[in-house]
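Dear colleagues,

For the upcoming journal club I promised to circulate an example of a predicted protein-ligand complex. I picked one with PBG because it came up in last month's discussion. The inputs are reproduced below in full, followed by the predicted structure.
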Amino acid sequence: MTSGQGGTNPGFARGRRLRSTPAMRRWTAQTRLAPADLVLPVFVKQGISEPVPISSMPGVVQHSPESLRKAAAEAAEVGISGLMLFGIPAEKDAVGSQADAADGIVNVALQQLRADLGDELVLMADLCLCEYTDHGHCGVVTPAGVVDNDPTLDRYAAVAIAQAQAGAHVIAPSGMMDGQVAAIRAGLDSAAFTGTPILAYAAKYASGFYGPFREAAEGAPQFGDRSTYQMDPPNTDEALREVAQDIAEGADAVMVKPAGPYLDIVARVADAVDVPVSAYQVSGEYAMVEAAAANGWIDRERAVLETLTAIRRAGAGSVLTYWAVEAARWLRR
Ligand code: PBG
């Protein structure tokens, strides 16, 4: 009993008095969740005319260009802040040519969405090569099969320019190459996109929770894994170093990924920096809740909102989540 906390009625200490009704709980809530806190990751695939369901992510699809336009209009309607675009090309090659081809799927989609929506949503372009390379790695690889950092940076700069040209409001490099933010900033500036911000996937862990995404984006590595360029799950200080490095190179905002299993990292990063912090609730986090809810083991809406609130409580300003549009609808009613 905590009656010592300022009351004479032992059954109603301060905590309980302040949570007695929904209105009282709303009044005292320290963390708010609103549609504007959310960003929806979307997949657009070349050469399909109907959306293709992703079996490991029930409710998420690979969009056709047309179905993406509808989904984007809906996203704008419910008031979320933005979209993060991933493209899946029909043809892949060793250097990921389709990532910066003017008629590449993601660039065509960006153009279309920008024409449809103007500045209504923040259109973010994920910048990586893994969806575009035939070997599935995030950069170009040497004959020995090692990801080659510096030639990859040249590719990233070219892709950033193509995406900005196509209408992306924000460039979001996720490949975890050393020096990628500086290379992309220099590339954008050289092409007169000095006003285009970079959201760096700064603290990105080599995570088992990306499993379903690899079905969605068709970008699983054909050999090896990403443990040499993504971060090691036991480490914290490394995240702070990566974030500081990206900001020093010119990142305008930073991201922590995954979100739920890394809330301590979200909290430390949010404390350490003075730029906007995003957290990416990844495919595996989504799939776990969906699977449990489908079995009737948890209350889906309650669990989803709890995960999103927890990510905000840890200090993320905005959350990338596959539930963005649905959660925004719940929050608005
Ligand atoms: C590309 C990228 C990945 C994700 C976002 N960008 C996959 C990976 O790094 O293996 C994962 C997102 C998710 O799981 O939802 N580098």
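Two points we might discuss: DSSP finds twelve helices and ten strands in the chain. The chain has one domain: 33-332.

See you all on Thursday,
B. R.
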